User: Fold PLIN1 protein from Rhagologus leucostigma.
Amino acid sequence: PTSICPVQENVLQRVLQLPVVSSTCETLQRKYSSTKESHPLMASVCEAYERGVQGAGALAMWGMEPVVRRLEPQFTVANNLACRGLDHLEEKIPALQYPVDK
Assistant:
């Protein structure tokens, strides 16, 4: 593990790449997809929800852009501190490097 995240990487990306997290996300995605496939009514509700979340997310990003630009230096410092904390967790908790089933 490195003590500072590379410029293009952030702590959220690193967390999502941990085997324990990525395998959990894959399992949840498979269950979500199989539920949608086996229940047509649930599929239509899920699709409407997904469209709503995408629209709300795009609107939120558009509205937050000026704030994010202004606070970028503080986000960089916080990201680097969070990466150091993640380095420490990865050293102390080796199970983070294994998929959930292990």
User: Anything to note?
Assistant: The CA atoms of residues 24 and 100 lie 6 Å apart. The chain has a mean pLDDT of 85.
